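Dear Dr. H.,

I hope your travels went smoothly. While you were away I took the liberty of generating a structure for the chain from your last submission, since the lab meeting agenda had it listed for discussion. I wanted you to have the full record in hand beforehand rather than looking at slides cold. The sequence, exactly as received, is reproduced here:
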Amino acid sequence: MIGFVMAGGKGSRMNLDSEKLLLKYKKPVILHVVDSLNDSKCFSKILALTSLHSPKTKKLLQENNINTLDTSGIGYAEDLTLVLQSTNDSVLVTSGDLPLLDKEIVQQIVNYYDPKKIWTSILVTNKFLTTLGLKSNYSVNYNDEICHYTGISLINANKITSSENTNENYIIIDDKRVGFNLNTKQDYELLGTT
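The corresponding predicted structure, in token form, is as follows:
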């Protein structure tokens, strides 16, 4: 299995002077994510997908001997789709802004991988997200419940072709390690209280 860390976004919702993934929570947030994947020992390779929007993040990753791959920076879905089309492996993809991610939760998620399913997205329930004091703009109705995407998915890239709509599966994991991602300055302030 390959681990992809999405690290090429603008972080425009944060309205920051610097790149979002360089925000510190003991160490830069992007390093928490990469370290949790490395420490899980689940991956043959870990790649951080960067873009022209994240030059300082790319530099930090390279200084820490983390492999990077440049993407167009058009958008999360577009960048990921292009990379997946040239990948013939099982993939765990995660956004780079999950500061509480750790090796145990990564191992737990990897254990859910089913090669018969092309795409499985990890969700948290709206109820759970609210208890964390967080909000999300990316929701889906699953099992008659409003849930939110965590930015983590398990993908069988062998089965992805550009012409088909992928049937998406869902797994709910109400855990702050996957639910706490940084989208706003308020989220970052909340992080300091965890």
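Two observations you may find useful: Helices lie at 29-40, 55-63, 76-85, 103-110, 126-131, 176-179, 185-191. DSSP finds seven helices and ten strands in the chain.

With kind regards,
E. W.
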